[in-house]
Request: fold
Amino acid sequence: MQVMSLPEALFVLLETPSRPLHLGALVLFEPPPEAGDDHARRMYEILLTHDEVADPLRRRPVRTLRGAGYPLWSRPENVDLGFHVRHTAVPGSGSMTDLLALVSRIHGSPLDPLRPMWEVYVIEGLDDGRTAMYAKIHLSLADGPAGLRLLHRSMSTDPEACDCPAPWSPEVVAPRARLSTLPTSWLRAGLRAGTEVFAMTPEIGRLVTDGVRRHRVALPWQTPPTIFNVAVGRGRTFAARSWQIERLHAVATASGTTIDAAALTMCAGGLRAYLSERYALPESPLTAMLPVPMNLGGAAVGPGGREPGVGAMVIGLATDEPDPAVRLARIADSLVHTDRVVTALSGTQFLMLSALSLSPLALEPVRRFVDEIPPPFNVLISYLPGPARTRYWNGARLTGIYPVPAVLNGQALGITLTGNDGRLDLGVVGDRHAVPALDRLVELLEGALSELESAVGTRPR
Reply:
């Protein structure tokens, strides 16, 4: 048995059968020219031959004291790949709409806590001849960036490569440092964390005060309630779309900002239009929780071979601003301030600040009875840069990788964007009842991007 870290334990403790806490990705492949109609079945069979599972993906949670104790990690000796890797088909005519409906149903089902909490589905039957793969993993095992890295690392830039590993193979998964269970180690870690908290107090006070005064950061209690901030059930709706990433590069260049700011402004414009159509746009600006990767000194992996850590910041989306160019400037300024905060703090200090920003989530059950408690943020938005070169898995060309984010209780909408081979791939997940007409939101994102291009002078004539 191994003691879970606090973030890992929280995702296990907060999950319920009606509110699963996993994320996923929908991956689309174009089969190689020589492949037959059985490409999906062959992919499934090849994946099953990769029966060596990396240690971090062998773990499953164990709840002590009949579920009342602190959760631990257990490592089963054998992993049943026949359970974790599945072969299925798109229902109906095999359209993209049918595929998204299938992924919506699978994404709404919780993972089995009696087994390592991840699953992979190979999907055939698309009317355009492509093969789809949907993978999901529990948040206690991996966050969004780490999950996408597993998929990308399993692929090759060589279209002739025929020995690509599975996403769960040891050569793909970065090892994790083993957590010490010795009380003396915990004591040293606690003293070290306490020292860092004391050291960061003056710097945090200065940065946060400056950020609030200049509207660069949003405090949890400043968030207006919206139709997205309600209790959620298990039902999910998933929508996806792609854009040429050059459109956002052009916006960023013309405005002197970054592609992150351009993508976030596109999302803000789409949300503003979606809520306006429903006469539900608050006067105060919406806020978003942004996962923020910590560079750990610029290294690709952190101490002990672990993946780089991820913290969180809450920023305003300037949805009270009708001018897209001004909205972009405000969001870009907030992102610059966030980078300044991350740079000024150590990894431990930033994780503690992240916990402080998200602490109102613990009051979500109370919000059902006390309307005056505002949500900690309105929506989860992530932008995850991806590889610029074309990727292949045993000759099958990657044509799309659409993130399928998790939905938290009280946060009925999640938006994730990632770059891939000159495209920006978007995945949006909403609670089926709380966020109606999710496809309409995706349409409005295109309109928001076009308006932004016109505002900064990059829209094609």
